[in-house]
TrEMBL record:
GO terms for molecular function: organic anion transmembrane transporter activity; prostaglandin transmembrane transporter activity. Belongs to the major facilitator (TC 2.A.1) superfamily. Organic cation transporter (TC 2.A.1.19) family. It catalyses: 3',5'-cyclic GMP(in) = 3',5'-cyclic GMP(out); 2-oxoglutarate(in) = 2-oxoglutarate(out); urate(out) = urate(in); GMP(in) = GMP(out). Keywords: Cell membrane, Ion transport, Membrane, Transmembrane, Transmembrane helix, Transport. This is Solute carrier family 22 member 7. It comes from Piprites chloris.
Length: 519
């Protein structure tokens, strides 16, 4: 007897499974609220150098004070990082005149003045993470994703050793602790450390929620479970926009997105441990108790499988030997799959977070951009689950990535004055990017043989998080050339999409069980 047969005996997909999915969707909603929080806590409002002795210009308007104190850039706006060492009163007569001597232009000497009309407080305004310190501002997102990368290794091992539910509870508790410590940060160093640790904790939530749900549903409903979980990620995207719009102070915004984890901790009481994991670990009495509860809730009173029968089922399984990450690269075909899928996962994550963490470049305000980007993901997910069964996994994966890159590239050449067109192209690109992410989860799980599937998913997940960590740092390349970040995102997306054509098609193909099936 297989575990799928046991699930069928307990009623298949019933009220018990629905309860689990509803509860596990709560932490799933919370994930993007932290993963994309950088857009709001690290947002940099418009700013200029603080002007000393400004009260001495009492007879001048604010515009005139800026005119004589701050040099203009090539586009006519006032510089954010430079000021005149002495007031240039002659500019009052003709603002188009150039400064008499370029040597009088210097970096800001007395701090900065920020526009607080949209954002009351961010880490940029609190610790002046602008101009020369701008790299530290972008690095906060990288620190977070480095934490997520480390957490993938830690919680991947611990959840196999100590159980799914236990580690999910631990990761939620740690998220609350480190999230609240982040909100209470009194220095940038403290924030960087606590956000990294928050990333470690949230990685456990990200890794465990979906497998725990999948291990309680039958084969027929796994696709539905994956779609539902993915859709609630998009719901979290939209909720983040609403919460950030209502809470404009970064400390309280961190509290607002961390608080819901407490509700998840309470609700987790009603979620059982994975019966598959319990049987694999020989804990038959606990597994039987959970299966009996499942059958009763699904109104199957005829469930009569005993703990002894579960023991016989476990002992009937043949041991499969030990496999490690190096096994992914030992044979030619598997090596090609691993290298190509690694490139594809990097491109998917790099382009997704490159677009998701750049809300100011598309002509909409950051709150509307975040909300619209969340909305467009839902139809993209639904369409892809139809397309992958019609045109195949390989074509879907390749073209969604290539079209993502082309949309990013199109916005490089579209003038900034065409705000509506830029917004439409950006929204289309975000839809293609999410479609690529949706496809890659399904595609990768079908590429690797059963005995190496978990190792394959762990390896590609690590590469994806590496892409997520590097994506925010690429924004700093605009100091070399204004469009270089977009060119980089575009190139990586298109190239990784082209690499996807090298992977084998898995549509209507039986899942490989061993390495010899792949070779």
């Amino acid at each position: 007897m297989k575990f799928e047969d046991l699930l069928r005996e307990t009623g298949g997909f019933g009220r018990f499974q629905i309860l689990i999915l509803v509860i596990l969707c709560l932490p799933r909603i919370n994930l993007p609220m932290h993963f994309l929080l950088h857009n709001f806590i690290a947002a940099t409002p418009s700013h200029h150098c603080a002007i000393p002795h400004q009260e001495a210009f009492g007879n001048l308007t604010m515009e005139e004070v800026l005119l004589i104190s701050i040099p203009r850039q090539s586009d006519g706006t006032f510089s954010s990082c430079e000021m005149f060492s002495q007031p240039q009163f002659h500019l009052l007569l003709n603002s188009s005149l150039k400064p008499e001597n370029k040597s009088i232009i210097q970096r800001c000497q007395h701090g900065w003045v920020y526009d607080h009309s949209q954002l009351t407080s961010t880490i940029s305004t609190q610790w002046d993470l602008v101009c020369e310190q701008r790299g530290l501002n972008q690095a906060t997102a990288t620190f977070f994703f480095i934490g997520v990368t480390m957490g993938a290794v830690v919680f991947g091992y611990l959840s196999d050793r100590f159980g799914r539910k236990t580690m999910l509870l631990l990761s939620l508790v740690c998220t609350v602790v480190f999230g609240m410590l982040s909100a209470a940060s009194v220095s940038f160093s403290m924030l960087a450390i606590t956000r990294t640790l928050t990333g470690v904790a949230l990685s456990g939530v990200s890794l465990i929620v979906l497998p725990l749900a999948m291990e309680w549903v039958d084969i027929q409903h796994r696709t539905f479970t994956g779609i539902l979980s993915s859709i609630f990620w998009s719901v979290g995207n939209m909720l983040l926009a609403m919460v950030a719009y209502l809470v404009r102070e970064w400390h309280w915004l961190l509290v607002a997105v961390t608080g819901p984890c407490l509700l998840s901790i309470v609700c987790l009481w009603w979620v059982p441990e994975s019966a598959r994991w319990l049987i694999a670990k020989g804990k038959m009495k606990q597994a039987h108790r959970h299966l009996l509860r499942c059958a009763r809730m699904n109104r199957r009173k005829d469930f009569a499988v005993s703990p002894e029968a579960l023991t016989r089922m476990a002992t009937d399984k043949k041991p499969g030997g030990s496999y490690f990450y190096i096994s992914l690269f030992r044979t030619p075909v598997l090596r090609k799959i691993s290298l190509c899928s690694g490139v594809v996962w990097f491109g998917v994550s790099f382009s997704y977070y490159g677009m998701s963490l750049n809300l100011t470049g598309f002509g909409l305000n950051i709150y509307l951009s975040q909300f619209v980007f969340g909305v467009i993901e839902i139809p993209a997910k639904m369409i892809m689950y139809v397309l992958v069964n019609r045109v195949g996994r390989r074509q879907s994966q390749a073209w969604t990535l290539i079209l993502t890159g082309l949309c990013i590239g199109a916005n490089i050449v579209i003038p900034k004055s065409f705000t509506s067109l830029r917004s439409v192209v950006a929204i289309m690109g975000k839809g293609f990017s999410e479609a690529a992410f949706t496809t890659v989860y399904l595609y990768t799980s079908e590429l690797y043989p059963t005995i190496l599937r978990q190792n394959g998913m762990g390896y590609t997940s690590f590469v994806a998080r590496l892409g997520g960590a590097l994506a925010p740092l690429v924004f700093l390349l605009d100091e070399v050339w204004k469009s270089l970040p977009e060119v980089t995102y575009c190139s990586v997306a298109v190239c990784s999409g082209a690499v996807a054509f090298l992977l084998p098609e898995t549509l209507n193909v039986c899942l490989p069980e061993g390495i010899e099936d792949v070779e």
